[in-house]
């Protein structure tokens, strides 16, 4: 770890879904007397609570959270919008505390705050239009297969069930004759704060077991009713999300409910695997087993902050 360049420190908590990031983030924020900036791109939306594992009322009351259910699924909200809003909020928070905690498993959004967004060349808009038509007529599988051929590196880290992400990557691949991943991480935006990234992990079997239990709890908590209310808006980008789109297929009477729940678990497992692939690229991340005592994590953080 390099010598600290600033008296402002953002502690970024990352890791796969269901690993315990929320609880750790709250414990850290309490310890440092600070706020939490949420970096989960699906927890931004007011209408999506159960399926996105939004922190409970008790958890939200324990520590001040920002960017939790602050917009509607009807509103377009890009990673660029989040980068702008998050940096503005961080500047405000650093005025009153030299440490802020950020929690979330959306790798692209984490990188947007900690490193800045990558620059991409403009491409012919007709390419995107054609890719959208291909998606409508041939399904998401056609997009997945093309990306796997054109950019296997990005294919292994992106959410392959999100057509918006697939189309964005493919239009760059096709329009530039280069892989989308070749444009990533070319330069890092200078921030006026330091970043310490800590990750939570576990054996894959443990992660998968926690995912299965979480999905069961979501169903018991009313995920099907939440998805039913959103079904009329199922084409919105915000709803191209694991947990909702599988239930939409059940509502379309294409799957049984048991199959839909099984697919939620399977797709969440795949998502967790891709999250780890994304976060493991950052060699500066300090990794902890998910059951590591918070006191041990805080001790490590204090040592790094002092250096």
TrEMBL record:
The signal peptide here is none
What are the UniProt keywords, alphabetically?
ATP-binding, Magnesium, Nucleotide-binding, Transferase, tRNA processing
Task: Please list the residues that bind substrate.
Answer: 17-22
Q: Which Pfam families has this protein been placed in?
A: IPPT
Please verify whether the record's keywords include Nucleotide-binding.
yes
User: Where does the entry annotate site (Interaction with substrate tRNA)?
Assistant: 106, 128
The record's EC number reads: 2.5.1.75
Look up the record and name the cofactor or cofactors this protein needs. Answer: Mg(2+)
* Residues annotated for ATP binding in this entry: 15-22
Where in this chain does the entry annotate a coiled-coil region? none
List, in alphabetical order, the Gene Ontology terms for molecular function in this entry. tRNA dimethylallyltransferase activity
List the residue ranges of the region (Interaction with substrate tRNA): 40-43
Catalyzed reactions:
adenosine(37) in tRNA + dimethylallyl diphosphate = N(6)-dimethylallyladenosine(37) in tRNA + diphosphate
UniProt key word Acyltransferase: no
- InterPro entries, alphabetically? Dimethylallyltransferase (IPR039657), IPT (IPR018022), P-loop_NTPase (IPR027417)
NCBIfam families given in the database record? miaA
The job of this chain, per UniProt, is described as: Catalyzes the transfer of a dimethylallyl group onto the adenine at position 37 in tRNAs that read codons beginning with uridine, leading to the formation of N6-(dimethylallyl)adenosine (i(6)A).
Relate the assembly described in the record: Monomer.
- Which family does this protein fall into? Belongs to the IPP transferase family.
Name assigned to this protein: tRNA dimethylallyltransferase
Annotated organism of origin: Sungkyunkwania multivorans
Point out the gene that encodes the protein.
miaA
């Amino acid at each position: 770890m390099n010598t600290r360049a600033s008296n402002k420190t953002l502690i970024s908590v990352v890791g796969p879904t269901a690993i315990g990031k929320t609880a750790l983030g709250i414990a850290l924020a309490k310890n440092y007397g600070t706020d939490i900036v949420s970096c989960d791109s699906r927890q931004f939306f007011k209408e999506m609570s159960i399926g996105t594992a939004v922190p409970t009322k008790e958890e939200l009351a324990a520590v001040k959270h920002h960017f939790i259910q602050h917009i509607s699924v009807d509103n377009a909200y890009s990673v660029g919008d989040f980068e702008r809003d998050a940096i503005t909020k961080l500047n405000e928070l650093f005025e009153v505390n030299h440490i802020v905690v950020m929690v979330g498993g959306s790798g692209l959004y984490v990188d947007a705050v900690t490193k800045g967004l990558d620059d991409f060349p403009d491409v012919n808009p007709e390419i995107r239009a054609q890719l959208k038509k291909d998606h409508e007529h041939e399904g998401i599988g056609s997009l997945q297969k093309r990306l796997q051929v054109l950019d296997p590196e990005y294919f292994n880290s992106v959410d392959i069930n999100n057509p918006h992400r697939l189309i964005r990557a493919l239009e760059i691949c096709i329009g530039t004759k280069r892989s989308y991943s070749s444009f990533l991480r070319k330069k890092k935006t200078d921030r006026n704060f330091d970043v310490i990234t800590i990750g939570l992990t576990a054996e894959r079997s443990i992660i998968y077991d926690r995912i299965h239990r979480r999905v069961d709890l979501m169903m018991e908590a009313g995920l099907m009713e939440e998805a039913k209310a959103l079904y009329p808006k199922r084409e919105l980008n915000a709803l191209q999300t694991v947990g909702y789109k599988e239930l939409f297929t059940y509502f379309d009477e294409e799957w049984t409910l048991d199959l839909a729940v099984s697919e939620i678990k399977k797709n969440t497992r795949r998502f967790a695997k891709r999250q780890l692939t994304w976060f493991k690229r950052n060699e500066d991340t300090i990794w902890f087993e998910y059951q590591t005592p918070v006191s041990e994590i805080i001790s490590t953080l204090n040592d790094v902050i002092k250096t």
